[in-house]
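Lab notebook: predicted structure, single chain.

Context: the supervisor wants predicted structures on file for every construct in the current expression panel, including those that have not yet been purified. This is the next one on the list. No modifications to the sequence; it matches the entry in the shared construct table.
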Amino acid sequence: MKKSSIALAVVAALAVAYPAASWMSGKRLETKLSQTDKKDVLFANFKIVKQTYTRGIFSSKQESTIEFDIAGMSPAASPMSLQDQAGQDPQNPQDATDAADADPHEPEMPKILKPVQFQVVNTIQHGPVPGILGIAAGKIETEFVLDATTKEEIKRVFGDKKFIEIRTVLNYGGGGKLTISSPAVNTTVGMNQDKLDWKGAKLEIDFDAAYKKLKFDLHSPGLDVLAAKGATSVKVGEIKMQGDAERAYPDGFLYLGTSKASIASMRFANAQAANKGFSVKEISLESTTTSKNDLIDSALKFGMANITMNDTPIGNFH
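Prediction complete. Output recorded below exactly as produced.
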């Protein structure tokens, strides 16, 4: 058989096989994305109120209204608090006396907050080759539905750029990578039209199938803000954060691991004030959390160098 015939046969086979593979990938993604794992503590306070899923051969679209239970995360909703409340008997004379003696001028405990709802739109490209990202089960571009006023406020700063991009690449074996990025902008903000030079940021989080192991990396070149009249300025240098984390218990919220965050420099200056400002370099925060014999050991290290206040050198602090 001629090479050209073999090539045509391969192309024909791929033309038939790829749509089938993409459709199957899309079906698996729909099953995974159409429900939150209520058994996992990370999603215990989220509830899908409304959802539509439009699946195609190569891509799909998911529109969801999600409810976030803020009260479920508050101390007032803790088991201890509920037991305490249940233990108060209105027929008990002592409890009735305590209630009568309560100071009416004392601030009341905050009422249980109502759940918050927000809308999310996921545009999903099916594997095996979703876009130009290599082999993967799928790629998801996530957008939040914003009201007209919020959109207008964001547009004043970012123009026609997306103020935030959220992308998730899911692996066939489970897990994947979440990438959140904000574009660089050089614009003016506020009533006084102060100059803002935001140099962008990017956060990457690698996760396994059960979200038990995480690895994260954040980087931003920093930002500069200059007041309209030029008297006041703020400069923040390169920002970095890296780390890894692993759940201490299979079904728990506590993670163990290491992390390191740093800011290369920070400076605030006011040429018109007696106190001209401050500057500092090499701000760093390191954390290490480990577990041994059912005990948690956590350590923090903090430091900064070349501290200057009002043109007076202070030194270093660690």
